[in-house]
Specification:
Helices cover 31% and strands 34% of the residues. It has 347 residues and is of the alpha+beta class. The protein has 2 domains: 55-145 and 323-346, Immunoglobulin-like; 148-308, C8orf32 fold. Strand 10 and strand 11 form a beta hairpin.
């Protein structure tokens, strides 16, 4: 009987020790998870801070009115099958002098790399051995947008430092066939006494002669021949005609802030006195430049969306007409695929 009691006490003691060990291990694992979670949160915060610090500081153009918005971009990648490696890039909006002040405040997943190019700021991700998975990456923040059309530039930008290398904004490239005989001959017919007047006449030509259509990715020449296309075609057409006249110009891409899920492309034209000035040639309605009796040019805006002014765009990239954000490698004999969708929301 005594032996049975001793054995019982030993079993109870062993059980109590086991419970104690389980308790300690569980607490250790919970604490470890908390540490890892904190590290991940700190890493993401570090990247958000890095994005902000890598953006160029904005030289404020004094007293230009601005609109303020909260925004969020969500990229969803759907993988069907098995993919050995997947590379994904996304543009992140950055500060543009006198046009937009951006603060990125949240980022759901730390990128493998974050870097800036002449065209924009890019967050890059690499995923390995992805199988039948949905990957979601999102970021959000605030943006203050400012109108920087020619009228504003003349009124406010008095101390502009001219850019030195503008050759790339005069050259032909995919979708902007500057040297094509059709575009060269058409450009010769559009004249003006000053750069400002030439640009206004090019703008008016595109506005009056092209019609908005779902057709896209056809290039400036085809768009001008067919006289139709989406916003990218309008922008590419105006840029091609400007470059054919020896005027630096580029396409700018982003979103309309008052219209959720509305991506858009517009134009910036370079002036030695004012820098890159915004024009939006897309024919939503009948926007034109008209000449006043004193010879000055006045921009007349009569759009289908009359409350969407140039100040209500958020710029993601510039001089980028075709940008593929995702690439992947499949396993041998695989029919796998990856597709991407983007959701943009204004809060």
């Amino acid at each position: 009987m005594k032996k049975i009691v001793i054995k019982s006490f030993l079993l109870i003691g062993a059980f109590a020790i086991s419970l104690g060990i389980c308790y300690l291990v569980t607490n250790f694992l919970i604490d470890r998870m908390k540490v890892e979670k904190t590290k991940a949160e700190n890493n993401t915060k570090t990247v958000v801070k890095e994005i902000s610090t890598k953006q160029k500081s904005v030289q404020q153009v004094a007293d230009i009115p601005f609109n303020s918005y909260n925004f969020e971009y969500t990229y969803t990648i759907k993988v069907d099958g098995n993919i050995s490696s997947l590379n994904f890039k996304m543009y992140v909006p950055r500060n543009q002098i006198g046009k937009q002040d951006v603060k990125v405040s949240s980022l759901s997943l730390k990128p493998n790399k974050f870097y800036t190019t002449d065209n924009g700021a890019i967050a890059e991700y690499n995923f390995l051995d992805v199988e039948n998975e949905i990957i979601e990456v999102s970021y959000g923040g605030t943006v203050k947008t400012k109108t920087y059309d020619l009228k504003t530039a003349k009124a406010y930008n008095k101390n502009f430092a001219p850019e030195k290398d503008l050759k790339r904004y005069l050259m032909a490239e995919k979708y902007i066939e500057v040297n094509d005989p059709y575009i060269v001959n058409l450009a010769k017919k559009i004249v003006g006494k000053t750069r400002e007047e030439v640009v206004a006449n090019i703008y008016n030509y595109v506005q009056k002669n092209m019609h908005y259509s779902p057709i896209q990715n056809i290039g400036a020449k085809k768009a001008l021949e067919l006289r139709k296309g989406k916003c990218v075609e309008f922008a590419a057409s105006m840029v091609a005609l400007c470059r054919a006249k020896g005027i630096p110009a580029r396409v700018v891409a982003g979103d309309i802030l008052r219209e959720a899920n509305t991506d858009h492309a517009w134009v910036e034209v370079y002036y030695d006195e004012y820098g890159w000035v915004t024009y939006d040639p897309t024919a939503f309605g009948t926007d034109v430049f008209q000449k006043n009796p004193d010879g000055s040019l006045e921009y007349v805006e009569k759009k289908v969306y009359p409350d969407i002014a140039q100040a209500d765009y958020i710029q993601l990239s510039k001089n980028e007409l075709e940008y593929i954000p995702i690439s992947y490698n499949m396993l041998p004999n695989s029919n796998s695929s990856a597709t991407i969708s983007v959701r943009f929301a204004v809060k």
